[in-house]
Design brief:
- Its EC number is 5.6.2.4.
- It catalyses: Couples ATP hydrolysis with the unwinding of duplex DNA by translocating in the 3'-5' direction; ATP + H2O = ADP + phosphate + H(+).
- By secondary structure, the protein is α/β, with parallel strands linked by helices.
- Among the domains are: about 100 residues, Nucleic acid-binding proteins (OB fold (Dihydrolipoamide Acetyltransferase, E2P)), CATH 2.40.50.140; about 190 residues, P-loop containing nucleotide triphosphate hydrolases (Rossmann fold, 3-Layer(aba) Sandwich), CATH 3.40.50; about 160 residues, P-loop containing nucleotide triphosphate hydrolases (Rossmann fold, 3-Layer(aba) Sandwich), CATH 3.40.50.300.
- Helices cover about 40% and strands about 20% of the residues.
- It has 27 helices and 22 strands.
- A 7-stranded mixed beta sheet has the order 6-7-4-3-2-5-8. Strands 12-13-11-14-15-10-16 form a 7-stranded parallel beta sheet, sandwiched between helices.
- Helix 9 crosses helix 10 and helix 22 runs antiparallel to helix 23.
- The longest helix has about 35 residues.
- The relative contact order is 0.09.
- The structure holds adenosine-5'-diphosphate and magnesium ion.
- Magnesium ion (MG) binds next to helix 13.
Amino acid sequence: MIQNLLQTPIEYLKGVGPNRADVLKKELNIQSYRDLINFFPNRYIDKTGFYKINQLQRNSSEVQIVGKIVHMKMVEQKRGKRLVADFVDDTGKMELIWFRGHKWIRENLKLNVPYVIFGKTNWYNGVFSMPHPEMELVADYKKNLRTAMQPVYPSTEMLLKKGITNRVIMKLMQEVLQQTGLKFSESLSTQLIEELKLISKAEALFNIHFPKNQELLAKAQFRLKFEELFFIQLQLIRKNMLHKQKIKGFNFEQIGEYFNDFYQHNLPFDLTNAQKRVIKEIRGDMGSGAQMNRLLQGDVGSGKTIVALMSMLIALDNGFQACLMAPTEILSIQHYNGLKELCEEIDVSIYLLTGSTKTAKRREIHEKLEAGEIDILIGTHALLEDKVKFHNLGLAVIDEQHRFGVAQRAKLWRKNHIPPHVLVMTATPIPRTLAMSLYGDLDISVIDELPPGRKPVKTVHRFDSNRLKVFAFIRDEIKKGRQVYVVYPLIQESEKMDYKDLMDGYESITREFPDFQISIVHGQMKPADKDYEMDRFVRAETQIMVATTVIEVGVNVPNASVMIIESAERFGLSQLHQLRGRVGRGAEQSFCILMTGHKLSNDSKTRLETMTTTNDGFEIAEVDLKLRGPGDLMGTQQSGVLNLKIADIVKDNSILQSARYYATRILKEDPNLSEEKNLVVKNAYSRLVKNKTIWNYIS
Ligand code: ADP
Ligand code: MG
């Protein structure tokens, strides 16, 4: 019954009507009673305490005082009049001031009767005053159910323009809570409520809007945050479990000749323990009979490519094809060359398909792919096209997955009649918090160990004014046989200016180093020219590579040991870390030099400081998350996911952990939530799904 009441369209609420309903819908997406109740304040004005006039401070904060008006007078001033009242309590005297509404106030305010006043105080010439105070007779104040802490709701210009002030929202909230609030059905099981010492749902909703005191507000916030995160986790974990039961996957039973031959005779180095562990996890997944959906996280240079290759060889051993998709052409080509070299001694047919593959070649690839004559296909988004049909795709690997959207992952799923196993790899370490809330339906593997012998990259921050010293340093390193990257920002909105910066930089470097060969790569070059330049650098025919961030991901030139990042303050942290990952891949000591001007924002300073103090991608990701907020970090594609009503993915990390713990525990004991004690949770969950309160964001 309460559920029906909650569905009631908002225009039926007393005090709303069609016009206000319209504004509420448009501005706040409040359609029903339920939506209104779930519209939470973003702060509170604390009216729990009373001040005495002699306790007032000159900091113009909001205070509440009990006292009486003893006298009122009009004061003429240059522009208009003001009404001034002398207000006293047993400790002193202050003034209340009105610039408007004089008539009404004079007629309605009573002298010598106790009032509770609330507002901001000013101090001028030894007198405290309060302009346009909120006032209520003490007698009414005591009668009123309304609580001491006043909610402040998020607002918009349009709402205010249409007269829907905070006061109005408060009124509506009182109305809707009176009609529904006390009858609210519980959504968490008694067991959870007892174990976590939670307050009831009804109590929480009441106190989130009208908290009786700080303590109850804290309890209400905890309960609602927990609940929000709990149901998201419940959904993610359930999905993951269902997935494992229902989505049949190809069963790769055997490890055969491809894998063994490669492992025994062609592996160019010993695998790190982390690599071995991850390969084992992947093997386990692909041999389980269910479809694999695994996220492989590993910092730049941790050696994800070889893991991808060995996983693909398992697919081949079982008679399947595999593909590897990368976000850029350069990276695809590099993977193609790298894997071809690694597979030189084993009989694997590897092809490359990108946007610039010529039509004839493309046709050949399409045909061979369908005939099963291609074992491994590497490429860009071009792999996703409908024309690209596999004979029998068993494993799809996606490199640098943060560059791709969820929809693209889904497209790969449809490349076979049973979805292929999917391995997504990322070098942008996602903080655990975020990984849990975003990818709860993926299994996660982490390579937390770099190949032996790597020296951490030394990172310093230099001002543009020290450029000559930096040039001298570049010269020294090149003389030792090293190569150098110089990277310029490229941000779409100001592409022209960036292009100019890049070209100016290129010119000054050519002038400074007439004795060295210099490559240049940027987004506006033809792919063939890009490849040519890239190639010269890879083969060490050029010593300096001037580039935009097109080289950000994946490029591997172990002899390059210096990374200069120009206008470093314009890059995000994860981007800086990615770029730095281009060096430090060989045995030599590598360096990353962050160049900036002198004018730096606080955030920029934090970013630069973080980069110079740590090489740990996870630590960097945590700082990034705090600076930018989760939406930005993941790109717009996923930002909607984190549109939480009350919880904050960064600040409420510990609540998230606990929500995940309890959701896992409940589902382990009772996967279908069919036990009596979990009925409450089950019903609440179904309602959330039905009302689309929980987003269905992972396809
Ligand atoms: P990423 O994880 O950033 O994709 P790559 O797979 O490109 O890293 O590997 C970076 C470099 O480390 C490559 O040159 C690769 O050959 C090398 N490498 C990978 N694993 C090992 C290992 N176990 N021992 C030594 N070198 C390794
Ligand atoms: Mg890589």
